[in-house]
Model the fold of this input.
Amino acid sequence: MAGQSQVNPDKEFRLADDECRSLVARILASREFQRASRLRAFLTYVVERKLAGTPEEVTETLIGHRVFGRPATYSPGEDSIVRTEARTLRQRLERYFAGEGAGER
Done:
């Protein structure tokens, strides 16, 4: 079924940490992400925080500081870099899974 996720929305789908890191490595090596250094850093940061058991570090402010180098005075209300890049990241991931990564779990 084109355009529909094969994941059952009623069941949690979770890859083992090593499988997740392998998937991320394949995504980062794809044509869709090869030249997108900021998106690569964003995806890597979010996945590593989740795998490290510190998802509370995945906030707009912390991503602004740690991934995009915004200063301590960074205000997400005044600078939408994280929201803008999150939208772009989602779009690229959708394209990856619709194309090059169509065979991924």
Remarks:
- Residues 17-98 form one domain.
- The radius of gyration is 15 Å.
